[in-house]
Amino acid sequence: MNFTFTGIISKGVPEANIQAEFYKLCRDAKIQVLLEITYKNCRFDAIVFRENKPFAIIEVKNYCLRRSRKGLNLNGRQMKKYKEFGLPIVGILNSKQIVPAFEKIVELLNKPVVQ
Q: What SS3 state is found at 22?
């Protein structure tokens, strides 16, 4: 396995390492995030919070490049359960998607809160 320490890691990285990289980006930006949360029979890879309330679900996979192009299976059992929470779901399908997923969370957090 080849590892680099510039924020992008080569293929074959365990999901836990992908989660850790995402967590570090969030924490450095003062974004509240918790990993491996279990709630109502669901285990979430990560939950991003806004003002101490769940804001977005992060689903982490370690797909090869070819499979990651297909995206998350939004019709699978796991995603159907996640959708019931009414939160945005952001997928990180390989290590190259860590930074884009972080940028998507920042974009979502910067949108005005609709009351």
A: helix
